[in-house]
Design goal:
The strands form four sheets. Strands 1, 2, 3, 4, 5, 6, 7 and 8 form an eight-stranded mixed sheet that branches. Strands 9, 10, 11, 12, 13, 14, 15 and 16 form an eight-stranded mixed sheet that branches. Helices cover 41% and strands 22% of the residues. With 767 residues, it is an alpha+beta fold. It has three domains: 3-223 and 233-424, Alpha-Beta Plaits (2-Layer Sandwich), CATH 3.30.70; 443-649, Rossmann fold; 655-762. The relative contact order is 0.08. Helix 3 (46-54) packs antiparallel against helix 4 and helix 24 packs across helix 26.
């Protein structure tokens, strides 16, 4: 199957109709007035179904995927056989549309939609989908005028939103229906009464009982197959990425995501709303692109316009997704307020099923689980005082990087207990080092660092590169080196890269030069003129370059005639000269340890400046930490050839050191053999993993502190890695190409030990 045909099931008939227009290649936002019938199916039991399968592990995602495939396969067959267009699945709901253009009159479209609703109830009620879990439906049908909005950034993703009076009435009607019902308003009943039996429910609603005069089902219409370059504008990026490598049958997994539920006060679904809606959606997409989140879904109902934006989806996962989500939410508030929109944003973190389901004719990539519902409830709890609220799981995953305050304890709809809700009250803090709190072992590494400090004391500069995977102890070793330098009264300057700012020029040196200039790096900056004057002395030429410092720090120094005329290349070169001179004067020949952490996130200009410091500033020992580089930089290669460079590769701790670290962290002299084995096997000698596992074991009651730290009442046999490690591991897997990712996924379903031939026999890709 070619890519055009593989993509086709992910589009609604309405989208295909738009793509068949001669003007489809020249996209622009639009609002098209439509008439027809709208069917809303609310499905009860999804949360229970999701929670059950989420406890099974990797197999659970495949089992849930099969259950959803079965359910929505029937849903699709019934809707399509009745001539409906499946608009999509919105969480635990299915939406379908009968376009009046296809049927001539509204009463024909309404009759087919109502026949479809009754058939859905009778067919789905009789079909088991999972043991002990029953899925039941509420169905509502309405019709009349609607508007189809086609909005978004065509370079990111376009969204079609079907809205209007008929959609609002159907949503209201289903909320009043009982499970098993098919309901319509009296206005609809007046157009279909000759074909059905019904009973009044009061309040302008009627419950359909049966079809008395069924209308013949329409003949199948072949769909327009749009070329990929046009159809891809409507595709979820996860689907497009995976379909592009032929991965069609393995898009199902449970993931821990942080979800933004964004609500805008845009309710009046008519063509006049287009400009405002387009501006808002593009603004939100711009922020999501900056922080690498994803726009998953958008809808318009009686509560306004709502958008769902998850962080952590396949191919877009980061170990700091919750931090990115909060940063993005704050930024969205600023962007939308500039358009006179006051957003309400709820943020929740938890495990969600992420998968592709449906049938050969219609499919969708969906997120299923209570986390989205919780984010929606938090959004509803927002008020004029707090436009951004988050749950406790999000607060915990932030790891203290955002100061937050408790707003209230409230009972959210659909929950049994009160929930603590929080709001951010300060600025983003630098990430806490992902490292163990105690340095165990590393005797050879310490000795090599000591020799480097000895040579620095003798006036010999150099560079130390400490390399290793996340959590292996790089920052712990740096902390030890800092203590040794302080004991020798050696000057220390510190900088660090950041994953969210890896494209920001010289970001890693921002904190370092803020320290040198005596200003705060995380607030409004105004460098004392006297400090700058003392650093530059009588160098009038470099004084002319001072405005260039605003490229690094917002010092508010205005451009002068010289800097205003510089090209971008000249500005970068002269800024480097200025920074080298400032650092040279600051150290004044005194030994200095310059620490740069997380170099794997440094931009090219930072690498170049770091190398220039080694070559041009005397008496500096540059200590750099980095994860293994996929593509080593030019400077890294030059350092490998320098005799004054020291490369330290950190390996995993052996069993003895891992157990010693565990005892130190727990504050005990003894561990049971069962706990020792579990911690070593699960952590594989990674110090950070070790401490996170111990923390999780203790919090879950799997360790009882009786002086021996023996296993608690709960068995450790089924212990799963904590979320703090899951996110880190998943983000690393997501950086692999699609084929290796699929190999890992299949292997995880088979189990920890298996024969390679078994994997080869089921691996669905060639090569």
């Amino acid at each position: 199957m070619d890519l055009d045909h593989a993509i086709s099931p992910y589009l609604s008939r309405l989208q295909k109709r738009m793509l068949a227009e001669p003007s489809a290649s020249q996209w622009s936002p639009s609002a098209t007035a439509l008439n027809g019938a709208f069917l809303f199916v609310d499905i009860a039991g999804f949360t229970k179904l999701t929670e059950r399968f989420s406890k099974v592990g990797p197999r659970g995602a495949e089992d849930l995927s099969r259950a959803l495939e079965s359910y929505f396969g029937i849903f699709n067959d019934v809707v399509l056989s009745h001539g409906g267009d499946i608009i999509g699945y919105a969480g635990p709901a299915g939406l379908a549309f009968w376009d009046q253009r296809d049927y001539g009159t509204l009463d024909v479209a309404l009759t087919l939609a109502c026949q479809c609703g009754l058939r859905l109830q009778s067919t789905l009620e009789a079909t088991p989908f999972a043991q002990d879990v029953v899925l039941r439906q509420r169905v509502a049908v309405d019709g009349g005028s609607m508007v189809n909005f086609d909005v978004g950034d065509v370079e990111e993703r376009c969204m079609t939103l079907l809205a209007g009076p008929a959609v609002l009435r159907a949503g209201h009607a289903q909320s009043l229906a009982a499970l098993g019902d098919v309901v319509v308003h009296d206005e609809v009943w007046s157009q279909i009464s000759s074909a059905f039996k019904s009973v009044s429910m009061g309040g302008n609603l009627r419950k359909l009982l049966s079809v008395e005069s069924p209308r013949p089902l329409p003949a199948h219409r072949p769909d327009h197959v749009a070329p990929t370059n046009l159809a891809s504008r409507y595709l979820h990026r996860v689907v497009l990425t995976r379909l592009g490598v032929g991965q069609r049958d393995f898009i199902a997994e449970f993931r821990t995501l942080t979800v933004l539920f964004i609500n805008l006060p845009l309710v009046d679904a008519d063509v006049r709303m287009l400009t405002k809606l387009q501006q808002a959606v593009v603004g939100i997409q711009g922020v999501l692109a900056e922080y690498e989140g994803t726009l998953h879904r958008a809808m318009i109902d009686d509560k306004g316009t709502s958008l769902v934006a998850p962080f952590g989806l396949p191919s877009f996962a980061h170990e700091d997704d919750s931090v990115r989500a909060i940063e993005a939410a704050i930024r969205m508030g600023e962007v939308l307020k500039s358009s006179d929109l006051e957003p309400r944003i709820g943020v929740a973190t938890g495990r969600l099923f992420c998968g592709d389901h449906g049938s050969a004719a219609r499919r969708q990539y969906s997120l299923v689980g209570p986390t989205i519902n919780r984010a929606a409830r938090l959004m509803q709890a927002c008020d004029g005082s707090h436009g951004l609220l988050l749950d406790g799981a999000t607060l915990q995953s932030l790891g203290g990087r955002f100061p937050c305050e408790l707003v209230a304890e409230i009972k959210l709809k659909g929950t049994e207990y009160e929930t603590r809700i929080y709001t951010p009250v300060g600025r983003l803090r630098r990430a806490k080092a992902m490292t163990a709190t105690t340095l165990i072992g590393r005797l050879d590494e310490r000795e090599r660092l000591t020799r480097c400090l000895d040579r620095l004391g003798e006036g010999v500069s150099g560079v130390v590169v400490i390399e290793g995977p996340p959590g292996i102890g790089k920052s712990a070793l740096v902390a030890w080196a800092r203590q040794q330098a302080e004991a020798r009264e050696i000057m220390i300057c510190e900088g660090a890269a950041d994953s969210m700012n890896r494209q920001t020029t010289l970001y890693s040196f921002r904190g370092l030069f803020a320290q040198v200039l005596g200003v705060a790096a995380d607030g409004p900056l105004t460098a004392p003129p006297s400090r700058l004057s003392s650093l530059l002395g009588d160098d009038s030429a470099l004084r002319e370059f001072l405005p260039l410092l605003t490229m690094l720090l917002p010092l508010g120094i205005p451009e002068n005639q010289m800097t205003a005329q510089m090209t971008a290349e000249n500005r970068a070169g002269n800024l480097r000269r200025l920074l080298l001179r400032i650092l040279e004067v600051h150290t004044a020949g005194r030994p200095c340890v310059l620490l740069l952490e997380d170099a794997h996130w440094m931009d090219s200009a930072t690498w170049a400046l770091a190398h220039a410091i080694i070559e041009e500033v005397e008496g500096v020992l540059l200590v750099v930490t980095t994860r293994p580089l996929a593509a080593p930089t030019e400077q890294y290669g030059l350092w490998q050839e320098m005799p004054e460079a020291t490369f330290i590769q950190l390996e995993a701790l052996d069993r003895e050191c891992t157990i010693e670290l565990s005892k130190s962290w727990l504050g005990t002299g003894q561990l049971s053999p069962e706990i020792e084995t579990l911690v070593f096997e699960k952590s594989e000698g990674n110090p950070f993993y070790c401490e996170e596992i111990l923390s999780s074991l203790r919090d879950l009651g799997m360790i009882e502190d009786r002086g021996t730290n023996s296993p608690g009442a709960k068995s450790v046999k089924n212990f799963e890695l904590p979320d703090s490690l899951e996110g880190l591991i998943v983000s690393r897997i997501d950086r692999l190409e699609q084929a290796p990712q699929l190999v890992l996924k299949i292997a995880s379903i088979i189990g920890r030990k298996f024969d390679a031939s078994l994997l080869r026999s089921i691996f669905p890709l060639e090569g």
